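Hey, quick one: can you model this chain's 3D structure?
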Amino acid sequence: MKRRSKKSNRLKGYDYSQCGMYFVTICTKNREELFGKIRSEKMVLNKLG
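Sure thing. Here's the predicted structure for all 49 residues.
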């Protein structure tokens, strides 16, 4: 398994406890489409999504 570098991905001085919107990426094993499919550049969720 790859080890992460000790470099932080967080912005210096930014308060992550404040309200806001955050982008989250979920990677699945073998890039399986577990949560839906992309159709016409839009995400179409399935029951899991």
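One thing worth noting: The two ends are 28 Å apart (CA to CA).
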